[in-house]
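job 3f2a | input accepted
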Amino acid sequence: MKLKSHRPPSQFPSNPRNPIYFNDTEQLSRDTLEYFIPNKKNNATFDSYLFHDGQGIGLQVTIAPTHSLNSEGLRNLRQRLGDPNNNATKPWLVAVVPKGQILTYAPPPSPANLKQLSFFKIEIELPDGVLLSLTWPLTLIVS
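job 3f2a | predicted structure (143 res):
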């Protein structure tokens, strides 16, 4: 499944957020002033997450043209981002890639995953030699 460039909000909050590092067993609050980062260096499926206006947003930063979707990682993300109001708002998984990058998930999201998560891609423009970073604020230039 190749991701099209969808248009989630073009601006995320620019105020600094407190980075909170967590392990798989911790359940954290939905405090919108936090930026949650797993302790694992190679966390399955997502690199970090945050909440913006009540919307749960998982971020996967990659420069690779193909990325895997781990079912355990997706379940973990859904549990962390799920709307406490009976899941009225579907969580997002946003792939953050360099401008012009085509991203393919292999294997593609299952029909069940597509019902439980919305998948987006945000492209950012990077000067030559600059790598993507997970520090906040994460400056996103939407193409």
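job 3f2a | Helices lie at 71-81, 111-116.
job 3f2a | closed
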